[in-house]
TrEMBL record, chains A, B:
Native species: Streptosporangium jomthongense
Designated name of the protein: NDP-hexose 2,3-dehydratase family protein
Lineage, uppermost ranks: Bacteria, Bacillati, Actinomycetota, Actinomycetes, Streptosporangiales
Stretches assigned to the dTDP-4-dehydro-6-deoxy-alpha-D-glucopyranose 2,3-dehydratase domain: 38-240, 255-458
Cross-referenced Pfam families: Hexose_dehydrat (PF03559)
Spans traversing the lipid bilayer: none
Gene3D superfamilies cross-referenced by the UniProt entry: EvaA sugar 2,3-dehydratase subunit (3.90.79.40)
Cited InterPro entries: EvaA-like (IPR005212), EvaA-like_sf (IPR038153)
């Protein structure tokens, strides 16, 4: 084997040096994109909402079509065996205020695709966003990624229309992949669910349907300051965008951060076992819902949906309906002039590796109202009582409207000082820079979906420093 | 929040810029270290072997002490509930020559520590290696990392002596962490086992026991050219060493590589279910062993061990004994002047994420002797027939001697050309640089233990380019 000069052109740089600068141009463009001004987006979304009939109605389980409690009630499943099932989970933890519990959980072993198409117009990268109806969203229609497809979607279990633009993500050699990573979703509600988060750049002309618009990163950042406009699937993909960092350093080096994370994972043990719904303690199934005995956490319910622009025009399905408004917040400080956020190495029963990095606060206060003192979640009360002068970002966002009903949460970024949250925080917490979160979000199993929602707000300029 | 100049010193660089250069000095030192010349290591190992009585004897299961087939034979377990169990596994794959099978498997949910202590002598980093006896090694004594401890070890289930130097890894603030990552082990023999791979640098004086010696990376590289000297635990930690790369580029960018890997993971489905040993089809349990009906793959056996320098002086335990000599090989080519190796995205039933990057060839030929044509493993015959002029590296190494009995394999790096292995290889294969493998080995679930063994040979200069 000798190296021939003739094959030198085959080599590529391992990193695309110009990419961060190009994305910075997209980030800087906050008021107008190639197609729409940011002000016009509201009208366009209202117009799309009018263009689509979409009625969501609660129904009893008995009226579910193609869905049944099978195996003597062990699982709620679709006749095709596809989509997802609702099953029981038994959890035994080694630490925390609650050491063991049962719960229903959504099991969806298929890997779906959440894909954003990117294209330059006048030298500025734009992302192709979709106005998409989802039955669980409180306002039904939100901005989603270009493609949001379960494997059942695109292998036609619905026998509905094809998923538009899917070909760019199934065969990414049609463009250039800028990000492609498997990421977890809600570890308290999903059993080991992962989705493929992709950003693909194209040069060719892309025909645009009525439900699609090209927007800049800066425009999306403006929209992320509003309640319930940018959906969870868009947020998680935006978190994986290869934004550059000009941070002068960090409180901890990357190796120290990885080592702390490894230690957190190694010291936690959580035993998790799927089991029949009928054996789940402390929950009961009624004709309309499966509920916790004390009314906490969430219910499993059923809805019927009639829509015009979905893969099929009418269907029924189960949804998970959380109780209460979640509070999801990063505490933030400048350290040596560089913004840092306080991450929490949080154990969640449905995560494949048990631990991922969560926001400082990720709780639904109602679920913890019965706890006091040391059992109160750390920093929760600090966020709940934060004055407006220290709230750097606040908006209400919904979780995935295809699985969750009215799953809204307050997302915040709150300024704190040494007295509130010291540089040497309690065990399980660590100060990291946004650049470090991006470094981790390039790989699976590090940054949980709630932290990725807030990272999307950092990546798009929705949170100013 | 305003940035005060007073707190600027708190910031650190995210990467340690001088580290790669320091490790390069250690790599360059191949003939002599601070304590021993490389030639003297053989004598020292022979002396340590003489110093320790160590007798390993096969016994029937009935003579196992503290180990029993419990729950009507469902699992082979230790009375303490610690260490590991042998259970049954049922696997259903969506592709490959065999679509479903049962097998026994070792289940060890605890996370252990494999730790290397590093210290500079005369400006050259040295690693503290241990001469360690393990019952499954064909030659019993090999070089292991400084610390090799299961959680059961260091929480004293053995009630034996303490693990030396463990304090540096349990509380790494005593030194500086250079690497710390959870890595999988053999996915065909272990169910979801992970260990913590750590390298910690210290400045303080470290008292050295008779079984320990400081060696340079270059010395370890020389020893890796010999058969059965450097054990698996040392190899996997060495694979995680933060060696620098001066590669001019790569055939695929890092993002392209990650995207290909993500696609490989997303397209594969493997259903894996633990079950009682008594329900495992095609395997039978005798008084001395559990064997496959056709005599393939491996057996579960039992041994008694008497030793002088282990945590306890006498014990019995089960071991997994593979049948046949494994062949583990990277094909390699220079592309644009830069060495590349051909990785295989290989599904293994015991891996948490199903797929990790394996060497080009990772098979025990005997297990595939009954297959022919397209069902023969790709590239296996190419490696088996490679002439000496194309074999860049060849040595026999053992897998973990605490769990596996005589688990030897031929590790090779073989030069090939476009006709043997094209730049556009078959599905599931990809050309990557050693630097890219190191980039991935910094994170869990990317590079499997066999590929890490070969990466250790690349990292230490055992394979010259």
């Amino acid at each position: 084997m000798t190296a021939g000069l003739f094959d030198l052109p085959r080599l590529r740089a391992r990193e695309d040096a110009g990419l961060a600068e190009r994305l910075a141009r997209s980030l800087a463009e906050t008021t107008a994109g190639w197609q729409l001004s940011t002000a016009q987006v509201t009208d366009w979304l209202a117009e799309r909402a009018l263009a689509h009939r979409f009625v969501v109605e609660r129904i009893p389980f008995a009226r579910l079509d193609q869905w049944d409690f099978v195996e003597d009630g062990a699982r709620l499943a679709h006749h095709s065996g596809k989509f997802f099932t609702v099953e029981g989970l038994r959890v035994t933890a080694d630490q925390g205020p609650v050491l063991s519990w049962d719960q229903p959980i959504i099991r969806q072993p298929e890997v779906g695709i959440l894909g954003l198409l990117l294209k330059e117009f006048d030298g500025v990268p734009h992302l192709l966003m979709q106005a998409k109806m989802e039955p669980g969203n409180p306002n039904l229609l939100q901005l989603s990624p270009t493609v949001q497809a379960t494997r059942s979607n695109y292998t036609k279990v619905h026998r509905g229309s094809e998923v538009r633009y899917l070909e760019y993500f199934v065969d990414p050699t049609r463009g250039r992949v800028l990000a492609d990573v498997l990421q977890s979703e809600q570890g308290s509600w999903f059993h080991q669910k992962i989705n493929r988060n992709m950003i693909v750049e194209v040069d060719e002309d892309v025909p645009i349907g009525d439900d699609f618009r090209w927007l800049t990163l800066g425009q999306i950042g403006e929209l992320l300051r509003r309640d319930n406009v940018v959906n969870m699937d868009a947020r998680t993909v935006l978190a994986c965008a290869p934004i550059g960092s000009d941070e002068a350093g960090a409180l901890h080096s990357d190796t120290e951060l990885l080592s702390w994370f490894t230690a957190e994972r190694a010291r936690r043990e959580m035993r998790v076992e799927l089991m029949p719904l009928t054996e789940v303690n402390d929950w009961r199934r009624g004709p309309w819902s499966i509920d916790h005995d004390a009314g906490r956490y969430f219910s499993i319910v059923a809805v019927s949906v009639a829509a015009g622009n979905r893969e099929v025009t009418r269907w029924t399905q189960p949804l998970l309906e959380p109780h209460g408004l979640a509070v999801t917040a990063f505490l933030t400080r400048r350290i040596g002039g560089v913004p840092h956020v306080l991450v929490h190495a949080k154990a969640e029963a449905g995560l494949r590796d048990t631990i991922e990095l969560a926001p400082t606060v990720q709780y639904t206060p109602e679920n913890y109202a019965h706890l006091s003192g040391a059992d109160r979640p750390p920093f929760l009360d600090l966020v709940l009582t934060a004055g407006p002068e220290s709230v750097r970002y606040r908006a209400i966002h919904s979780e995935e409207g295809g699985r969750f009903l009215n799953a809204e949460g307050r997302y915040l970024v709150v300024d704190v000082n040494e007295a509130d949250a010291p540089l040497d925080p309690p065990p399980g917490f660590r100060w990291v820079t946004p650049g470090q979160l991006r470094f981790l979000a390039r790989h699976p199993h590090y940054v949980n979906v709630q932290a990725r929602s807030l990272l999307a707000c950092l990546n798009t300029g929705a949170v100013g420093w």
